[in-house]
Amino acid sequence: MRVLVILANPKIGSFNHAVYQTVNEELLRLGHEVCFHDLYLEKFDPVLPNGEVELTESELPSSLRNYIDEVRESQGLIFIHPNWWGGPPAILRGWLDRIFRQDSIYNFTPQGVVSRIGDKIVQVFSTSNTPRDIELNVYGDPIEVFWKTIVFGLLGSKSFERRNFESIIMSTEQQRHQWLNETKEIIKRRF
Fold first, then answer.
1. Hey, what domains does the chain have and what are their CATH numbers?
2. What is the DSSP string of 135-191?
3. What is the pLDDT of residues 83-116, one digit of tens each?
């Protein structure tokens, strides 16, 4: 299986980086073909420049076309990021703006939105400092709503799952070790 893995956390040594490394090692151990992208390390520009929306896919810079091809050609998509203000970091939101383009990833038709990427296995690993009960009962779990309903619900994905690790700031080294083992198990079960 071909799997695209996207990391969005600027802090080297973060728990997100440990999840990213664990995911990549486990996918490779299982024999999958993996495309890895650390958006901060790659210095991905999240700013959608004036006029880019009007460009056809063939007019885009090759770096953007490569990401689009990887999304389309992958059977699995994995996103790893912290929860910042109820959403993924701006670099990942900008990546979605620039890569999940109309006419490349989806189309609008009189019958509604039509996905051009098919039903992929989608896994999100997120981290937060907010206790789970507050995230659910006060904020309504905005990251889950964003990924599951807004992005992949629109694109028709039926194989979506998210694991949020919290509270990172209060976690112990033993908890984080257990979470990395859980990450391996999720990858084995889903991919």
1. 2-190 (3.40.50.360)
2. HHHTT--HHHIIIIIIITTTTT-SEEEEEEEE-GGG--HHHHHHHHHHHHHHHHHH-
3. 998 899 999 999 999 999 999 999 989 988 888 8
